[in-house]
Amino acid sequence: MNRRSLFSIAALVLVMLAVGVLSIGTGEFQLSFGDVLKTLAGNGTKAQYLVVTDRLPRALVGVLVGAALGLAGSVFQTLTRNPLGSPDIIGFTTGSATGGVATILVLGGSPVLIAGGALVGGLLTAGVVALFAAPRGLQSSRIVLLGIALSAVLAGINSYLLSRATTDGAGQATVWLVGNLAGRDWGYFAPLAVALLLLTPAVAALSRPLRMLEMGDDTSIGIGVPVQRVRPALFVLSVALVAVATAAAGPIPFVALCAPQLVKRLTRTPGPNLIASMCMGALLVVCADYAGQRLLAASLLPVGVVAAALGGLYLIFFLVTRRRAAWS
User: Fold this and answer.
1) Which pLDDT belongs to residue 63?
2) d(Cα 58, Cα 48) in Å, to the nearest integer?
């Protein structure tokens, strides 16, 4: 990791912490930036402590969700060797959402059950995409179109499930489906943190072969990378990252797509940039959640709505710049 990458990671972490503290300190009971820091250090009043500890898990869940999406996006884009090959575009996020919605409507809204349903939905979607993309699998040029088509089908399934649900079940599933950090407490943070503690080191252990895979299968095999074992392992780990993030906050679009690309522009370093992508993903989600809470004084926008709006603009910018680059 070069000096520019280290400086970029440090800057991303500092900005993320600043926005997180700002988000914790704003709301019906306002706290200054210094009061939040003082309370987190254990020197605040009892009222300040209650306010901060009430908002802290929401901010931390946002950080972990963004980190998981950023890491998954970086791995997927490296495996597919396609900047559009992110879980959002390929349909894994929508598949996880379908699994989560089905779980909410059938078994209830427990975070652990939703995580299981989202994981099953994501893996089934991944299996279908890999099957239709055969024989070249993830490196097929058709994978983006397949993902868009499958996402449309899954969105239709989600709408059908909601139309057949009871009023309470449909309301709960709809709130989750839009992507929301409201009400996220320590009960959401703990399983998400445990999942990331297990998944992140596993991905890190495969970071070197992942970097080799970016050069193509033939080159990777030539230097001793067991491609047939490494690729499925990274594939499953990434789907699991998307699933646990979706289970905690609902589907938050475009973060997995944007974070790795923004990091590449920031660090100007080729390769997966796993740590920087995690930091960028966390920063994007924290900023989107803060903007959703404070952008309009009269209403609170879910983080998924803000991320979709900003991510859509980024996707247009990305496609335009790619087209200009192709013409030049």
Assistant:
1) 94
2) 16
